[in-house]
Amino acid sequence: MIEFDHVTRTYGAKTAVSDLTLAIPRGELFALLGPNGAGKTTTIRMLVGLLRPSRGAVRVCGHDLVKDPRSAHLHLGYVPDEPTLYDKLTGREFLWFIADMFGMPQRLATTRIDREIEHFELGEFADDLAESYSLGMKQRLVFAASLLHDPDVLVLDEPMVGLDPRSVRIVKDLLSARTREGMTVFMSTHTLAMAEEMADRVGIMVRGQLRFLGTIAELREQMALESTTLEQLYLEVTSARRTEP
Amino acid sequence: MSRRPPPPEAVRLLSFEDEARLFMRLRGTLAWETIRSMLADARLRLSLVVLLSGLFWAALYGLFLEGFGFLDSLHAEVISLLFNAFFASLMVMLVFSTGILVYTGMYCSPEARLLLTLPVRAETIHTHKFREAMWFSSWGFVLLGSPMLAAYGVVRHAAWPYYVVMLPLMISFVFIPASVGSIICTLLVAWMPRLRLHALTIGVTAASVAALGLGWSIFSQSQVDGMSAAWFERTFARLAVAEQKMFPSWWLSMGLIEAARTERDGSLLAAGLFESLKFLALLVANALALQHLAAWVARVAYRRGYSQLIGEVPARRRRPLRWFDRTLGHAGFAAGRPLRLLLVKDLRLFRRDISQWSQFAIFFGLLGLYFLNLRAFNYHNAYASMIGYLNLAVVGLILSTFTTRFVYPMISLEGRRFWILGLLPVHRDQIVWSKFLFSFCGSIVPCCCLVLLSDCMLGIPWPLIAQHELCCVMLCMGLSGIAVGFGARMPDLRESSPSKIAAGFGGTLSLVVSSLFIMATVMLAAVPTHLFLLARTLGPGAVSPLGSFAWAGGPWGAAAGAVAVVALGLVATFVPLGLGLRAFRRLEA
What we know:
The structure holds 2 protein chains of 2 kinds. Chain A is an alpha/beta fold. Chain A has 9 helices and 10 strands. Chain A has 2 domains: 155 residues, P-loop containing nucleotide triphosphate hydrolases (Rossmann fold, 3-Layer(aba) Sandwich), CATH 3.40.50.300; 69 residues, no CATH class. In chain A, strands 6-7-8-3-9-10 form a 6-stranded mixed beta sheet, with helices on both faces. Chain A has a 4-stranded antiparallel beta sheet with strand order 2-1-4-5. In chain A, helix 3 packs parallel to helix 5 and helix 8 packs across helix 9. In chain B, helix 3 runs antiparallel to helix 5, helix 7 runs parallel beside helix 13 and helix 14 runs parallel beside helix 17. Chain B has 2 domains: 267 residues, no CATH class; 251 residues, no CATH class. Chain B has 20 helices and no strands. Chains A and B meet through strand 1, helix 2 and helix 3 of A and helix 1, helix 4 and helix 10 of B.
């Protein structure tokens, strides 16, 4: 579903992502971890087509993000770290705009909009202008919009920022259900507990390089630290004393 | 290459027409919701703006009506010259302003980031943001241009088709420089992201040098026979560059002039209308072709440019004026330090925002150029005095556009950073005062220098120069007070684009009030002086019809005018500032 094929991205003399090769199959929830400045945001930006790789290719469902971005975006849903909405549109109008953008037929769009409004408990304020929403409400609406077209790939950048505990639970349950149905999730997060709880595999990036790729059990095995938490493992991997695996 | 799964159920890529319809619906909904919220929440304010805008339009219409009548009686050809020069300079300004707004909308807005992650064509996003940029860059043209062209039609006794073709001619013209600005911006960002700042600087410098050279060539040799037929002939010949038949500004001028032509009996001249329609067709064809080209350029270069821009490493800047900031920050008593530090911060932001200082430099540079050449006109005393007051009003009007565009949004823009200021040991009043001082101190030097230059070139005696300088100081103070006071009274803390904040209700109201203030100030100073000159030239009998107000034409009249100007300036400064301070103290961020 997602392929990074020897992807390198440089900013002037600095290499933000170095020769990243990664394939994430259908139905997997992948969490990308790493300290600030590790290259996570650059990776996400390349995955959603905002940034072009300096070398290599990024593909979603076989569509190259540079050569054929529109076809790739048809398979993608994206929840950025800062939700972007139109202040003068109501939540429902925004969802209709997104549904229309994906060319969804009227009847199906109505069903899906109602479904997502119910899933994310947006009913109370769906007909208010987005300018009156709190950060959490905006984030829930962006989640709803990103799932409207049942994407094959969902990209999440710090997805839980601004969400209350109940909304976090809703999102977690939904992600589990959708991945079981075959959706691939690529998530960048600093919330290690969430990665530990939900991710099938994790990748840990340090200074543009993927230092570790595998399950948490594999990470424990590799680090020879059987009963430690992901936080301790993460700190071990990202510390400068360690060499590449 | 992996196997490509089909797109999700019932999802498809939209056709170009469907995308266009979708964005048109989006713009319609956004506009309607904006109007609906204004009608629901601010009916009184909306009515006030409509009323004041109407008054402003009517005043401009009256001014242009008088002006065109005067010019028509002197040299009818001068109108064609004026139209060409006016529309040519407007064309250059629209290229720059649309380019800057397209850059902001397409590359810096969160909306662009959202749209670029959706399955929509790059050229559709470009068209959407281009229309928005064009609207924001050209509303001033419509507000100023429509009363001017309507007045021209009335003076020329134009038949109804003139008024019908006027708007299509203006709109199709605006598309041309706006498209050129958009194309230049898109190409610069895609292929020369590091050069965009330098390119803009070079473009502005080249345009200024060209304008300077042209101005010098026109006026430098015309000191003896100013305003004579020979002078006009020579001026016409030198202004031929603005009358190039390849310029869209010439097509617009000719389209308007031809449409206004009538038979001797005042009836519609069919040949004139036909010619005008040909120019309209030429403008529309070029506007469409350039729109098509701009869309093609966006298709090829937009995504590439966006990626280039967000992947750009900020260059390490030199800080040549750091010593000045440090001196200002530490100067004076410790009690005033927070205020000075806020001033230093605003000064730094101004210096590093090219859209602010470049427009400031262009407008005031062009005005300086015009004033430098005033000596060539050899005005006699009465004219010199009148032109001096008109120049004062022009300086004020240009300053008012800057205070509205850049100073008015300053408080609103603090909204997003309000938590920083709110937690500092700074009184809220100091924030408002710092904005006022920034605007007042920043405007007073260039404005007073320009007025002094104008008066020196016109050979105006020193007592009048002193009066003009006093008016200029009061204008700088009042306009800063209005912009900062209204900005604090009606902040828009949600909006991040200063152009949108300025184009909103408060900005429009600030512009209208500023214009009325300028007119009142200039009138209060000019009327007694005019009566005084009249009495001195024609004898005391010239002002005797004023009866008991005949003293207004003497020294007491001038003194009363000066006192009234100071009083009005103080009211215009402190009333809006007082309202703004009170509202800002109560503001909950």
